[in-house]
Amino acid sequence: MMKAAYISKTGAPDVIQVGDLPCPEPQAGQVLVEVKCVAVNPIDTYIRSGAVAMQLPDPFIIGCDFAGIVHKIGEGVTSFKVGDRVWGSNQGLLGRQGTFAEYIAVDQAWTHHLPEAVAFEDAAAVALVAITAHLGLFRDAKLKAGETILVIGGTGGVGSMVVQMAKLAGARVITTAGSDSKAATALELGADQVISYHKEPIGEAIARLAPEGVNVFWETRREPDFDLAVAAMAPRGRMVLMAGRDARPAFPVGPFYVKECSLQGMVMFKASPEEVAATAKDINQWLSNRQLKSNISARLSLDQAAESHRMQEAATLHGNSNLAGKIVLSVG
């Protein structure tokens, strides 16, 4: 048996139980990971609440991200051996069991080696958000050195990864922050300029900082502002959209097509294992070189799984939290 955080029905964070479940056995092509750290993502709360409907096993272990040590390997596994340090994401989705447990069985295709120099909590904290940022920046927006990117919310989970990776790619990075402390954090992460939107409207600031427009506009809000985005983008600007499932905002068709802009929707868990593995190579190198830093806002234990979801929802859905980064939970 093992300790796990799981649900038997969807609902509020209180439906999360922490108790003993049978330890899984790795099937062919899987590794059994002794989990050390996990992290919380907004998608975790949407699945737990039922807002995003997916077929779930019963009981369903929550969570996408993990970092730990290979405890056992299944038949046909050639990429890993017992004792390897590993990390990954994309669990707890599309019928797969999640990660908030002492042991998890994961397909080797979704598992990545973890360099010795990288702490388990850092790997867990960056997993989903770093993969998302990498896919959006390089696979989709095709960001190039010398271009200018505007990141809405540069201290959030994904935003903090986008800021750092864009800077590593040689871009000029402008981001937004809602407080002086978050603005300071954004600068520490590598942003060139920070728009404090509690002091100056974003549109006015962009007109001042990038009068020719930005090449990439990265939107993280649940209510996208297309009027703002299209006005802010340079000719042939690219917008990456990764949030706003229920949003129905107005769209300025004329300015959008006249500028020859493009709009890219992206969902990390629809990427192929090969696409994700390609991101992991860069992420590992940057983590090892300390060029990419985790942005951890709170550290909890597995017993506090329900509280971690309450904290995430307060930030994501209600905007009434001081959370400025990831929630990481220690497991083993």
Which percent range describes the beta-strand content? 25-35%
The number of domains: 2
Name of the top-level CATH class of the largest domain: Alpha Beta
Indicate the CATH topology of the largest domain. Quinone Oxidoreductase, Chain A, domain 1
Q: What are the low-pLDDT stretches, counting only 5+ consecutive residues below 50? A: none
- How far is it from the N-terminal to the C-terminal residue, by CA? 14 Å
The gyration radius over C-alpha positions equals 20 Å
Order of helices and strands: EEEHEEEEEHEHEHEHEHEHEHEHE
- Give the overall shape, derived from the CA principal axes: globular
How many helices? Answer: 9
Q: Mind summarizing the main beta sheet?
A: 7 strands, mixed
The proportion of residues forming helix, as a percent range, comes to 25-40%
Average pLDDT works out at 95
CATH superfamily caption of the largest domain:
Medium-chain alcohol dehydrogenases, catalytic domain
The assigned structural class equals alpha/beta
CATH architecture of the largest domain: Alpha-Beta Complex
For this structure, the quaternary state is single chain
Number of strands: 16
Written account of the structure:
The protein has 332 residues and is α/β, with parallel strands linked by helices. The protein is built from nine helices and 16 strands. The strands form three sheets. Strands 3, 5, 6, 7, 8, 15 and 16 form a seven-stranded mixed sheet that branches. α9 links the parallel β15 (296-301) and β16 (326-330). α2 packs across α8 (273-288). The radius of gyration is 20 Å and the shape is globular.
